[in-house]
Amino acid sequence: MRRLSICFALLATLLVEPAACAQYVSPDASRLAPPLPAPPPPPKIEVPKVPQFDAPPRYNYQPLPRNSFSDRVTKYLHDGAAAGLGPADRGTYARMCAN
Length: 99
Prior knowledge:
4 helices
């Protein structure tokens, strides 16, 4: 009895048409749809550079880039205000320091 019910259920599922087809392609799809884009290139695999223990260390002796004039003036105005200088004294202090 159990085998008969399993066969009946299997036959019923095969005879019933599926409710939705996920990948239905109509015969005219090639004329209407744009062509598929090319696949992306494979990722570039590089071996990371391994530091050598016996290699001399490399130092960067280049000076740090200097801030712009407006950045320096703003910094010195804030520093003068933090030091308790008045508005006139802050302007004098910022002009002397920024140049």
